[in-house]
Amino acid sequence: MKGxxxxxxxxxxxxxGLVLSAPGLAEEAQGHxxxxxxxxxxxxxxxxxxxxxxxxxxxxxxxxxxxxxQVAARLSQAxxxxxxxxxxxxxxxxxxxxxxxxxxxxxxxAREEAERERVAIRQEAEKxxxxxxxxxxxxxxxxxxxxxxxxxxxxxxxxxSLAEKKIKEKLTPELHRKLIHRAIDRLRSxxxxxxxx
Length: 197
Description:
By secondary structure, this protein is mainly alpha-helical. It has helices at about 10-30, 35-170, 175-195.
């Protein structure tokens, strides 16, 4: 940024104007009015400020031109920043509007995923229940077979035991001797024809 710096000619001219107008001001202070003095002061004033305007015109124009350019640049920069801020605000609003839609989509996806998981878990539970029912049926069938086998063995043992008990009750020593003799006779009869032949 260029600052306003008057040159030494302008300062000399201002000082000269003050020196020339000092006697007139002193006389006016004493109460006398002199037209020539007044015109001289006006002429000094015009020369002073005309010279100042002439001498300071170029630096003042450059200073004002620089200031105008700086202000214009700042205004342009401020406008660009404003446009950028408005654009960012619009993007933020769009993202906020889209965010509600995205949240809704995510909720819907989560709901669908939960439904799929629920169906998969139910199917898995049904498969597991069917497997357990099958295992239980197989185990029950095995237990029934084993129970029937044990029951048959028990029935056989019981039958044998009852038969033995009945035989023991009916088998008297006399009947026992008769059975033994009958068995011996049968053995003799089966062996005698082979011996004779």
